[in-house]
UniProtKB/TrEMBL annotation:
Membrane-spanning ranges: 15-38, 134-155, 167-192
Taxonomic path: Eukaryota, Metazoa, Ecdysozoa, Nematoda, Chromadorea
Catalytic activity: L-cysteinyl-[protein] + hexadecanoyl-CoA = S-hexadecanoyl-L-cysteinyl-[protein] + CoA
Comment field on protein domains: The DHHC domain is required for palmitoyltransferase activity.
Organism of this sequence: Parascaris univalens
GO molecular function terms noted in the UniProt entry: protein-cysteine S-palmitoyltransferase activity
Identification of the protein by name: Palmitoyltransferase
PROSITE patterns (UniProt xref): DHHC
Class in the EC hierarchy, top level: transferase
This protein's UniProt keywords: Acyltransferase, Membrane, Transferase, Transmembrane, Transmembrane helix
Record localization: Membrane
InterPro entries linked: Palmitoyltrfase_DHHC (IPR001594), PFA4/ZDH16/20/ERF2-like (IPR039859)
Record-stated family: Belongs to the DHHC palmitoyltransferase family.
The enzyme's E.C. designation: 2.3.1.225
Amino acid sequence: MSHVVPLIADPYDRWLNAIVVSALLVMTEWCYFVAALAPLPSPSREYYLDALTTLKTGCCRERLNELCKRHIESSDLQVKQLHENGNVRYCETCQCIRPDKSHHCTECGICILRCDHHCVLMGCCIHQDNLKAFILYLVWGLLYSTLAFITDFNFTYFNAPEDRGPFWYTISISYLMCTQLAIWPMVIYSYLIPMNLAFRDRWHQRCPFDNLGWRKNLRRG
């Protein structure tokens, strides 16, 4: 946009685009850093088993499952989500019982509460504490790339006084690609959040575990 705004003839239109687009860019970057720098929420100490007790079970999953069930009852843990075979969701890497909607991220190396997915763009997991910032990042990014594309496309294709070469057309296409990349996640999450589903879950049924309603699920962060 810095290559287009100074060339807009109308001063009102020029300043409007400069201020609005810059504000949208600032909000996009702010939400990005808030989501990327959010601490990873891990299960509390009550969900972890004693290492020595775990070693005594050996490789017997039946004994380990019984141990997990006794630990849940004795510690009064609220765990409802189980494996399909009825066993407790236990993480052998972290040696802890997984709370509802939590998953172990191999990239981050720990179990994360309400882990949605590991975002390569941000280099971290999207979880209960940064999901709202991630959604806002998509919203502001969509608005920024859309307005930037409209302004750049309108100037390059209709108002440019001369042909400035293929580089300018490439910039317009890049804004359009960013718009498309932001639209599809917004469509997906508009379906997942009301269903209390994470990106890694199966999408064919509503998840009843740890469901506070779509507004509170989004406001956890």
